[in-house]
Design brief:
This protein is α/β, with parallel strands linked by helices. The protein is built from 14 helices and 22 strands. Helix 1 crosses helix 7. It binds nicotinamide-adenine-dinucleotide.
């Protein structure tokens, strides 16, 4: 059984039960991890609270040095971790390689940003006064992580939280805890004990215990809307700072001017990477009515060339879905849409054999009355819908409770300007969907969440702001009691 990391110790705590971690490509058990609970969370939070007293006072340059060391150790174990990530999550090796490289670089990025961000001096009300804004860490941050990018979405929280001077307790998903535990062992042990702790176990136990713990000052969670809502309701009585990255139903609008082959390749990437299990996957596609037939034909031909398989094999383009329950959600949405008049052009049927595979699927004749166009699908499905003019395309793109990302494929600058001004989404991609940037804030509008990750904004989430007003002379003021005597 792989141990957790609490207070610098590798331990299974008092967990009596173990959780099987499966390989979604083979359905075999890869390893077991402890099913932690309230006791382990209490221990980890206590360790993080004690470590915070020292870490917050550690010079930012020293913190940066230690974070760079953690990144360097991660790079030493890069190949091994990439393989483990593919085994537990299913994504092809090149995608795991990219996830890990980005994880390493995020640690370096925030190590540097944390060196020179402590606040600012502001104009005083009087020449003898000194006013400044201090940015201070909160304390212990609970980092609750989903399974689809277990390392990347974890480090998007942990790196800025540490750079700001907080300490953390990480709760990985029960579906993909192995790469996090191994990363903790090889990299986070470069940091003082208690600065980073990892507790494994179900969300209903470990996650909720973190949310309810009075010494956890911030909850940073990436997950589904339902989980975000549950966390918000549980955290409300404690007035905890929340940072929530939730679901999406991202649209892509194909412009009337764009080369169709380019759009096909961009859409296949945006909708199918990680088997469509990305919060910002393109899940709704709007195509000019006059171009829908040739576009659908070219897309169908292209997706039929993609190879489904075990992510460890070099020939694999698309790996398995994470579990059968997620595949069943996709199947239900697709079958229901077909029952409501959608036409299936590719995929739509699970292959025989082991592994939770689902093929790239293309549908036309869809509409917004279908669950497929309203609820998160989280699978490799590309539903195409016709639009008549750009007003309609924008209206359809905005017709969703979510507002995570949105893409446009067009070289027409008038359409581009209208799109980024009028579409309600936290990230707008023009001609290059799903490409993120360390310095570019990432997060959702509407029901897609609260707060931002990455960039300066991602660091600011983990600082609380204090305004200091310092009168250096300290003479009585004319506005003090008693009124009318000029304060003297
Ligand atoms: P999930 O909501 O089931 O779980 C996410 C994490 O929350 C897990 O660690 C889980 O154990 C924990 N959790 C569950 N219930 C909890 C509770 N009551 N209290 C505290 N913690 C709890 O999500 P998932 O299936 O792991 O991931 C897929 C979802 O995540 C999708 O909805 C996807 O859109 C979303 N997501 C969002 C982003 C983003 O940046 N906005 C990125 C990736 C994934």
């Amino acid at each position: 059984m792989l141990p957790m990391l609490i207070d610098g110790t590798r331990t299974r705590g008092e967990a009596a039960e173990a959780i099987d971690v499966l390989n979604p490509a083979t359905e075999e058990v890869l390893a077991q991890v402890p099913a932690g609970g309230e006791h382990e969370v209490g221990w980890a939070v206590d360790a993080a609270r004690r470590a915070f007293a020292v870490w917050r006072r550690t010079p930012a340059t020293e913190r940066a040095h230690l974070m760079h060391q953690a990144a360097a150790r991660l790079r030493e174990h890069h190949a091994e971790l990439v393989r483990l990530l593919t085994q537990e999550e299913g994504k092809p090796i090149p995608e795991s390689d990219e996830e890990l490289a980005w994880t390493e670089d995020t640690l370096d990025y925030y190590a540097e940003l944390g060196r020179h961000e402590r606040g600012r001096v502001i104009p005083p009300g009087d020449p003898d006064q000194f006013n400044f804004v201090l940015k201070e860490p909160y304390g212990v941050v609970g980092c609750i992580v989903p399974w689809n990018y277990p390392l990347l979405l974890m480090i998007w929280k942990v790196a800025p939280a540490l750079a700001a001077g907080n300490t953390v307790v990480i709760k990985p998903s029960v579906l993909t805890p192995l790469s996090t535990l191994r990363m903790a062992e090889v990299a986070f042990t470069a940091l003082p004990p208690g600065v980073v702790n990892v507790v494994t176990g179900p969300g209903s136990r470990v996650g909720e215990a973190l949310v309810r713990h009075p010494d956890v000052a911030v909850i940073a969670c990436t997950g589904s809307l339902a989980t975000g809502q549950r966390i918000a309701s549980q955290a409300a009585p404690l007035m905890k700072k929340l940072h929530l990255e939730l679901g999406g139903k991202d649209p892509m609008v194909i412009g009337p001017d764009i080369d169709l082959d380019l759009a096909v390749r961009a859409l296949a990437y945006a909708g199918l990477i990680n088997a469509g299990q990305v919060c910002t996957s393109t899940e709704r596609v709007y195509v000019p009515r006059s171009r829908l037939a040739p576009f659908a034909e070219a897309l169908t031909a292209f997706v039929k060339t993609l190879r489904l398989g075990n992510g460890l094999e070099a020939t694999t383009d698309i790996g398995p879905m994470i579990r059968d329950s997620f595949r069943q959600t996709v199947e239900r949405q697709v079958e229901e849409a077909i029952g409501q008049g959608a036409r299936l052009l590719a995929g739509g049927r699970r292959p025989e054999g082991r592994g939770y595979f689902y093929p790239p699927t293309v549908l036309v004749d869809v509409h917004h009355g279908m669950r497929l166009m309203r609820q998160e699908t989280f699978g490799p499905v590309l539903p195409l819908m016709a639009y008549d003019d750009f007003d309609e395309a924008i209206r359809l793109a905005n017709d969703s409770p979510y507002g995570l990302g949105a893409s446009l494929m067009s070289h027409d600058s008038c359409l581009v300007k209208r799109f980024f001004e009028e579409v309600h989404a936290g990230t707008i991609w023009i001609n290059d969907p799903l490409t993120d940037n360390y310095a570019g804030p990432f997060g959702g509008m509407k029901m897609s969440g609260l707060g931002r990750e990455l960039g300066q904004e991602g660091l600011d989430e983990f600082f609380q702001v204090k305004h200091v007003h310092w009168d250096m002379v300290g003479a009585p003021k004319p506005y003090w009691y008693p009124y009318g005597e000029g304060g003297s």
